[in-house]
Design goal:
alpha+beta; six-stranded mixed beta sheet; elongated; binds 2-acetamido-2-deoxy-beta-D-glucopyranose; transmembrane
């Protein structure tokens, strides 16, 4: 064993200098590492010749960014994993810097084993461009209660819930999609190509196909300008995963330190040499923000476009239908663009005391002071509560001038813009029809709560009389019920002529006066709460059991939605049953569904309230049958197949006159027969004659 010679002073100095030089030369250990094989490309299946910033396959990791690592399965399927979600790469274009991706779990599969939102919103990947459309998949919903399934329902057994109903919703979901009657466990957001969205809404492709076509993703290499300089002098771009820095590789090694510019120098260089590199950093940052800014507009536009397209498709098959202007013009603009209505003066009563004696009609509406209303309702005492409406609680009050009023105190500030609220109140106070409740006015904008003041109608609601607290008294004979139907239809037809959609037609909103004449309440209220598609709105739109099934597809209530709800009211008048009753059998929970089944199966007698004399009286039976058929038409799934409110009114009046002129029944036969062809694949309802059993 020879002891190692003690180093001479000169060799010590040499080592010392060498160490300093090495340290000065590079700050990390990578100098000694070789960076080989970045001239290899990645290829897998149809994805070929992929280079920086991507790595994976035969490309070593230092040849690209960690977020751009691709994997290859079975030599055919290329995958990219981002935020722990794996995506199939269907296309990769390194000239335009975009990819077509599809979430792997949802590829050719609508029922994934795990649920992940697909949101690529980082600075590296963006999927929010106008070439995509968002679909929301909603899983684990409890049973759908209508027999006619909506086309956007599908089945998925999932681990998260015992419920197997699932839905897809194209575009934004402004409100709880299936309203409050259906509970869903989980929702997943996934983009698809705009074209797939269009074809899906036209039912030209299935959801599975749409998911399999993927969505477009723009990617952005934050070191792109450094890389182009590196390429400029023959280097190959890479990335040091340990130090997190862009590197430039020359012949398996880092290029000489003078050559690869530091990020600071690059920034200087790229700004001074604009034009050379038109994909420099600042510009890349602008593109996503522009895309984001126009996204909301595109979403809204698509929603309108979608509803329009659906209508067009249907119009093509049924040219006799007319286009409702409601489809194109948003409801908030509609009233102002329509011809002015003529109304009687709204000040038919002496103006009440006002806030500090200010002008009582500050915007053409009668203004009540909050204090007066507080006094009129005993400080909104609960014993005076008449009901809980969609937007507030209603109290019975007595004004100092002796008027009995119904006072609706709106729930705290769930309206968006006071200005719009006042406009809406002004429009509603101008509506005058013998079968509409009069809206006298509201509190001033300075008042602490917004309160609407209506005429008080003393005799309860139709719901109270059909299946509520007064049901047992049996005051509603068939002729009264038919009259209620006619007067309600009359009021709704008037609203529609005035370009107002009621939006919440139900027996709870049909009030009765002492002579059992109808006063329709709560009309147009949801107009005050704009259903802004860019925000999730909590404003209720309609009531479970009464809501137009097409609402679930377009989130838009039209005149034809009122017609649908009115169809439910007609069935309630015939049957005395509630619109929704969970004590009934599953398929009968929803009254409209139950009615459609009974009418189609020619078992109407099982639906009709026997106390009305259906079995006993021939004329009553004839009338009820005709009303049931009218209701059947109102309850059609497709909006365009439903009659207009004017037509409904006309048919009801003819039915009422039947009693007096039995021979006129022929008139009705013709109009009923005409519509049988519209029943869209369903069993044609029996002709009135076959159901009468008495000629
Ligand atoms: C890739 O680069 C290595 C040196 O790093 C070289 O030996 C090899 O020939 C190159 N291959 C191709 C296909 O250019
Ligand atoms: C990939 O590169 C190979 C060889 O460079 C070439 O023959 C082939 O056409 C390329 N494929 C694509 C899809 O560009
Ligand atoms: C999707 O799956 C079906 C069978 O489930 C198969 O026949 C079809 O080829 C698949 N399509 C794609 C694009 O993988
Ligand atoms: C997806 O995102 C929505 C809205 O951000 C959220 O409500 C939902 O729970 C998310 N789903 C999953 C599976 O994380
Ligand atoms: C991206 O998503 C994160 C949460 O996942 C969020 O905080 C961020 O604001 C989003 N960025 C953009 C631009 O939407
Ligand atoms: C879902 O599971 C139920 C039993 O839990 C089964 O009857 C049904 O066929 C399954 N549906 C599908 C689509 O797998
Ligand atoms: C599903 O049903 C089973 C029994 O049928 C019950 O034990 C389980 O808790 C249910 N799961 C959920 C998520 O409701
Ligand atoms: C759907 O297909 C029909 C004919 O099959 C075609 O007329 C229509 O334009 C298609 N719609 C879309 C959105 O592709
Ligand atoms: C960066 O640009 C400034 C002027 O914009 C110049 O004074 C400076 O010398 C430049 N630095 C480098 C490293 O090029």
């Amino acid at each position: 064993m020879t002891p190692s010679p003690s180093p001479s002073p000169s060799s010590l100095i040499t080592i010392f200098i060498a160490t300093i030089l090495t340290a000065a030369h590079s700050q990390d250990t990578t100098t000694t590492t070789t960076f080989a094989n970045c001239n290899r490309t990645f290829s897998c299946g149809t994805i070929r010749n992929i280079t920086y910033p991507f790595t994976g396959g035969g490309r070593p990791s230092h040849c690209g960014l960690p977020e751009f690592t691709l994997t290859c399965r079975d030599n055919t399927v290329t995958e990219l994993t981002h935020n722990s979600v794996a995506y199939r790469v269907l296309k990769l274009d390194q000239v335009q810097n975009f990819m077509i991706l599809a979430p792997s779990l949802l590829y050719n599969n609508t029922c994934p084993s795990q649920f992940h939102n697909s949101t690529l919103n980082s600075t590296l990947f963006r999927d929010d461009g106008p070439e995509n459309e968002v679909i929301n998949l909603i899983y684990g919903c409890n049973g759908y209660v209508m027999s006619v399934k909506p086309h956007n329902i599908f089945n998925c057994n999932s681990s998260i819930s015992n419920f197997t109903d699932s839905y897809y919703v194209i575009g934004p979901v402004p409100t709880d999609p299936i309203l409050r009657i259906i509970f869903c466990s989980i929702s997943v957001r996934v983009p698809v190509l705009m074209d797939s969205g269009n074809r899906l809404s036209g039912l030209n492709i299935s959801l599975r196909e749409a998911l399999t076509l993927g969505f477009s993703v723009k990617y952005n290499d934050p070191y792109e300008s450094i890389c182009s300089q590196c390429n400029g002098f023959g280097g190959q771009c890479g990335f040091d995963w340990i130090s997190g820095q862009s590197i430039c590789i020359c012949d398996d090694k880092l290029c000489p330190p003078a050559l690869p510019p530091s990020p600071e120098a690059t920034r200087n260089a790229s700004t001074s040499s604009q034009g050379n590199d038109d994909r420099s950093k600042p510009r890349m940052n602008v593109v996503p923000s522009i895309a984001g800014a126009i996204l909301a507009g595109i979403g809204l536009g698509w929603l309108i476009f979608y509803c329009k397209q659906r209508r067009k498709l249907r119009l093509a098959t049924n040219s006799s239908q007319t286009i409702s202007k409601d489809v194109i013009i948003p409801p908030s603009n509609k009233v102002f663009s329509s011809p002015p209505l003529t109304f009687p003066s709204i000040h038919s009563y002496p103006p009440p005391k006002t806030d500090l004696g200010r002008d009582s009609s500050e915007f053409g509406v009668q203004i009540f002071s909050y204090c007066d209303l507080k006094e009129a309702t005993d400080n909104f005492d609960c014993s005076r509560e008449l009901g809980d409406g969609g937007f507030g609680t209603v109290y019975h009050g007595m004004l100092r001038d002796g008027r009995a009023v119904a006072v609706k105190r709106l729930y705290e500030n769930n309206f968006k813009r006071v200005e719009q609220f006042r406009n809406e109140v002004e429009i509603l106070t101008r509506l005058r029809h013998p079968n509409l409740v009069i809206l006298y006015g509201c509190t001033s904008k300075r008042s602490r709560d917004l309160v609407l003041v209506y005429e008080y109608i003393p005799n309860g609601t139709v719901a109270d009389h059909l299946h509520g607290k007064w049901a047992k008294s049996g005051l509603l004979s068939w002729p009264i019920r038919l009259n209620i139907a006619i007067e309600t239809a009359d009021a709704l037809a008037y609203l529609h002529r005035s370009d107002i959609v009621h939006r919440d037609v139900k027996t709870n909103n049909i009030l009765l006066d002492n002579d059992f004449h109808v006063k329709v309440a709560d009309f147009g209220l949801s107009r005050m709460f704009p259903n802004d598609v860019t925000h999730v709105s909590t404003a209720p739109q309609g009531t479970p059991g009464y809501v137009d099934p097409e609402y679930y597809q377009c989130y838009k209530l039209t005149e034809k939605s009122d017609v649908y709800s009115f169809g439910v009211v007609l069935i309630e008048l015939i049957s005395s049953l509630q619109a929704v009753d969970t004590n009934r059998q599953r398929l009968d929970i929803n009254l409209s569904n139950m009615a459609i089944n009974k009418i189609q199966n020619r078992t109407l007698h099982e639906l009709v309230d026997q106390s009305l004399g259906f079995e006993m009286d021939c004329n009553t039976r004839r009338m009820i049958t005709l009303v049931a058929e009218l209701a059947f038409r109102c309850l059609q799934q497709e909006r365009d197949m439903r009659p207009s409110m004017e037509e409904v009114l006309e048919v009801l009046r003819v039915v009422q006159n039947e009693k007096l002129n039995a021979h006129k029944v022929e008139v009705v036969h013709i109009s009923v027969d005409d519509e049988i062809g519209l029943l869209n694949g369903s069993i044609s309802p029996p002709s009135p004659n076959s159901m009468f059993g008495c000629a």
